[in-house]
């Protein structure tokens, strides 16, 4: 059960069957069977943790090639706010933006600029709808996916505003059509992404039918092509710059809430910390807050697996870069763009449901508990499942058996040996 075209996939030839990935996956979406890892797509949230920890580089991310620029007559780049933090000694965003033009783009629309508009929209929405507080940010697709599959009671708290990337794409298309007179099919909108989740979100956008983004490039691939194209004399050029401190700050944890001009918020990063916050929200332990910003990657988007720079170094770079920038470079000026609010309902995805009915699920859960009690409880991963409870669930689902547990298998073989000795 999945409406996602996942961007994380397995290169089976490189997989050695180790258990690094299954121990890190936050939704227990990976199993090792037959000496190879297998990703259960319906459980996957494209967080990229398996990509990050795989020592054999067997977990990979699907993204478009720079050669796809040739598919369009007019190309617009949408750099993510964290993109600027990948480069050394950048004191002005113009240096990066001009390099994108030299790389082959005809124009640039900063996602950071759209983020500033989303910040304005968020402030207005919270003020107009105080009954829904605390609202949960929808900027991180992995977090939203996690909520949809594991925390259904929190779906109503999701902020129903499109992401900065989708807003940037919509505005970029509008500008390009006006500038060029070309047909839409001749205009290519290229998002430069820090992580797999944002790539997945383009093919399966949240709250809207279709994203205006045509291609998605990985920051790490664009980075290598950019270095020889960056020139210091571009510093101070305001031709392409649209964003200020608020927009640039979205690239790191706490950046989104900094644009809300409130101290009634929580900002957490790292998938384990995110899960803890969501559990507390679900249990009603967190109240009297306006907003909750959650990023699955440590440090926020600067920690995405498609980045180049160390996330902690990147956060420092963003802080230095924004020091002499205006507070904001883009404003709504009272004009709210069309289609900025969700037009499509975001629904619960019961991928972890065991049975077809509640009664069947309860019966299966009882069987799982009984089997789990018979397992050693070591959570060693030797069976190919991340925990003993996950193995018990696989057994009940019919995709594993108790002898997959090496400890039970050892006991079984010892029993057979003892029985044979008695003959």
Summarize the structure.
Helix content is about 35%, strand content about 10%. With about 425 residues, it is an alpha/beta fold. The chain has a four-stranded parallel beta sheet. It has a three-stranded parallel beta sheet with strand order 7-11-10, with helices on one face. A two-stranded antiparallel ribbon has the order 1-4.
Give an overview in words.
It is a single chain. With 423 residues, the chain is α/β, with parallel strands linked by helices. It folds into three domains: 1-62, Alpha-Beta Plaits; 66-129 and 160-251 and 303-324, Rossmann fold, CATH 3.40.50; 354-423, 3-methyladenine DNA Glycosylase II, Chain A, domain 3, CATH 1.10.15.40. The protein contains 15 helices and eleven strands. It has helices at 20-24, 49-53, 93-103, 111-128, 141-150, 164-180, 196-203, 219-226, 245-249, 255-258, 271-282, 311-321, 358-374, 388-397, 406-422; strands at residues 8-10, 30-33, 36-39, 59-61, 74-79, 107-108, 135-136, 187-193, 215-218, 265-269, 291-295. A four-stranded parallel sheet has the order 6-5-8-9. Strand 2 and strand 3 (36-39) form a beta hairpin. The longest helix is centred in the first third of the chain and has 18 residues, at 111-128. The chain is globular and about 90 Å long. The model has no long low-confidence stretch (mean pLDDT 93).
Would you spell out the secondary-structure blueprint of this structure?
Layout: E1 8-10, H1 20-24, E2 30-33, E3 36-39, H2 49-53, E4 59-61, E5 74-79, H3 93-103, E6 107-108, H4 111-128, E7 135-136, H5 141-150, H6 164-180, E8 187-193, H7 196-203, E9 215-218, H8 219-226, H9 245-249, H10 255-258, E10 265-269, H11 271-282, E11 291-295, H12 311-321, H13 358-374, H14 388-397, H15 406-422
Parallel strand pairs: 5-6, 5-8, 7-11, 8-9, 10-11
Antiparallel strand pairs: 1-4, 2-3
């Amino acid at each position: 059960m999945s409406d996602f075209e996942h961007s994380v996939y397995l290169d089976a030839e490189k997989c050695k069957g180790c258990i690094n990935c299954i121990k890190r996956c936050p939704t227990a979406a990976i199993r090792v069977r037959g000496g190879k890892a297998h990703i259960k797509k319906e459980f996957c949230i494209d967080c990229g943790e398996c990509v990050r920890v795989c020592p054999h580089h067997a977990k990979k991310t699907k993204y478009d090639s720079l050669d796809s620029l040739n598919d369009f007559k007019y190309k617009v780049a949408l750099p993510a706010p964290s993109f600027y933090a990948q480069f050394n000694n950048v004191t002005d965003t113009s240096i990066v933006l001009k390099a994108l033009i030299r790389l082959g783009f005809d124009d640039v629309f900063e996602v950071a600029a759209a983020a500033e508009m989303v910040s304005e929209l968020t402030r207005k929405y919270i003020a107009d709808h105080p009954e829904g507080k605390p609202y949960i940010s929808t900027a991180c697709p992995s977090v939203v996916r996690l909520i949809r599959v594991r925390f259904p009671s929190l779906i109503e708290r999701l902020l129903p505003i499109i992401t900065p990337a989708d807003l940037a794409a919509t505005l970029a298309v509008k500008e390009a059509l006006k500038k060029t007179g070309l047909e839409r099919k001749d205009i290519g909108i290229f998002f430069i992404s820090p992580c797999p989740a944002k790539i997945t979100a383009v093919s399966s956008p949240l709250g809207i039918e279709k994203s205006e983004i045509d291609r998605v490039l990985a920051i790490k691939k664009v980075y290598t092509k950019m270095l020889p194209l960056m020139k210091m004399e571009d510093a101070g050029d305001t031709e392409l710059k649209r964003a200020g401190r608020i927009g640039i700050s979205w690239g790191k944890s706490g950046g989104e809430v900094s644009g809300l001009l409130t101290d009634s918020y929580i900002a957490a990063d790292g998938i384990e910390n995110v899960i803890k916050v969501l559990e507390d929200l679900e249990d009603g332990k967190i109240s009297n807050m306006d907003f909750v910003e959650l990023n699955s990657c440590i440090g926020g988007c600067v920690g995405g697996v498609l980045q180049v720079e160390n996330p902690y170094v990147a956060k420092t770079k963003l802080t230095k870069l924004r020091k002499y920038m205006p507070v904001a470079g883009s404003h709504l000026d009272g004009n709210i763009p069309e289609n900025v609010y969700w037009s499509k309902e975001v629904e619960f995805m019961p991928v972890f449901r065991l049975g077809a009915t509640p009664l069947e699920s309860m019966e299966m859960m009882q069987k799982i508990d009984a089997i789990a009690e018979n397992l050693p409880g070591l959570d060693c991963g030797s069976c190919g499942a991340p925990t003993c409870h996950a193995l018990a669930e696989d057994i009940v689902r019919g995709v594993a058996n108790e002898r997959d547990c090496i400890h039970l298998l050892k006991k079984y073989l010892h029993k057979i040996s003892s029985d044979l000795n008695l003959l």
